[in-house]
Design goal:
By secondary structure, the chain is an alpha+beta fold. It has helices at residues 18-22, 35-42, 47-63, 87-98, 155-163, 169-189; strands at residues 13-16, 30-33, 74-78, 119-120, 129-133, 138-144, 197-201.
Length: 202
């Protein structure tokens, strides 16, 4: 699979998954996710997918400052309903990384490893996404201000031409490069920019 090389430069996320350990899926239950995993899940790379991946990483860093995050022991809540805007896209990435699921999640084994009722939508709360570490009940909200990392002024014209099948091959190549360049900048140049990713203890 060929993909933009900057994907490999994006820091990965390591988690301990007790279910993976129990079933022998991963040595010591340690799972590692990279940005490419989020891209594969979504089927594309865009600012929304990037912000979902990075917002989750920021939340996990806050909730587990001195420990490996425990997948399946994290609750995720969204202020919007699942069909609103890009909430569903973001939630899919958050769910993959945290293990949090709604009623359709894994039911567990003998009362252990239940992944259900840990992903919620349309919650009245400040912010966009709230993550809660269930063993301590410590919570954090993360919001992404992607408008602070604008795309090239060429993108609107190029995407219109591509959609209308009037773009030249050179324009198609330019559009794809500029689109992914914005994603790169969000993740690698603004990942620790507090004006872009706002982390607030909840």
């Amino acid at each position: 699979m060929d993909y933009p090389s900057f994907y490999d430069a994006v820091p990965t996320i390591s988690l301990y998954d007790p279910l993976a350990e129990f079933l022998g899926a991963a040595e010591g239950g340690i799972l590692q996710y990279g940005y490419l995993d989020a891209v594969k899940l979504a089927g594309h790379s865009c600012p929304t997918v990037a912000s979902a991946y990075w917002s989750t990483r920021k939340a996990l860093d806050f909730l587990y400052p001195d420990a490996t995050p425990v997948r399946g022991d994290i609750k995720a809540e969204f202020s919007q309903d699942s069909a609103s805007g890009v909430t569903g896209v973001i939630a899919n990435v958050v769910s993959m990384l945290t293990g949090a699921m709604s009623d359709n999640g894994f039911k567990g084994i003998a009362g252990r490893f239940d992944r259900r009722k840990k992903l919620f939508f349309a919650v009245e709360m400040p912010g966009e996404i709230r993550f809660t570490r269930l063993d301590t009940n410590r919570s954090v909200s993360v919001a992404s201000n992607l408008q602070r990392v604008p795309s090239s002024p060429r993108v609107p014209e190029l995407i219109s031409n591509c959609i209308n099948n009037t773009a030249t091959q050179q324009e198609i190549t330019e559009f794809r490069h500029l689109w992914q360049e914005r994603v790169r900048r969000i993740l690698l140049e603004h990942g620790d920019d507090p004006d872009v990713f706002v982390v607030t203890p909840a």
